[in-house]
């Protein structure tokens, strides 16, 4: 007699959504305080993603009598990241389009100042900014946010799944 296998989808979507909302609140605080370009503060946002993954995997393990394979954990972590990325991407679209329409220009201005401080010539700056503009529309911001979170989330999920897995014994 075989038991029904619990779904990896339900906890992944639940905690991807919760983590995404927490991340949006965190991002809003960073943006309002003008520290959104501080890479250290931005990196702390990944801790929210890791916590969401761990919580989703713990819930899945509880529903499967303490067991979770590496593949199940990887699936949960990647799905958490996808939901997280979609919510974060949509927030950034709304923010850059409606709340702060100058957001893209401000980022561009900061990039130019950074390149100037590094000693780039005007020609090199124009070239760099031309490339950056191809990826800076609000729509591309959403796409790049989603893809970035899925990619980084997959990498993080590889590690978190390896730590949290508890394979069901072959003969139970």
Would you kindly provide a written description of the structure presented here, covering whatever features stand out?
With 172 residues, the chain is mostly helical. It has one domain. The protein has six helices and no strands. The protein has helices at 9-32, 39-63, 70-99, 103-117, 122-134, 138-164. The protein is elongated and about 70 Å long. The mean pLDDT is 91.
Chart the SSEs and their pairings:
Layout: H1 9-32, H2 39-63, H3 70-99, H4 103-117, H5 122-134, H6 138-164
Helix pairs in contact: 1-2, 1-3, 2-3, 2-6, 3-6, 4-5
- How many individual helices? 6
Helix content: over 70%
Catalogue the unreliable spans: none
Mean pLDDT: 91
Number of distinct beta strands: 0
Q: Which H/E pattern describes the elements?
A: HHHHHH
The main β sheet shows up as:
none
As a percent range, the share of strand residues is: under 5%
Oligomer: single chain
Give the termini separation: 11 Å
- What spatial form do the alpha-carbon principal axes imply? elongated
Quickly count the domains: 1
Radius of gyration: 20 Å
SS content category: mainly alpha
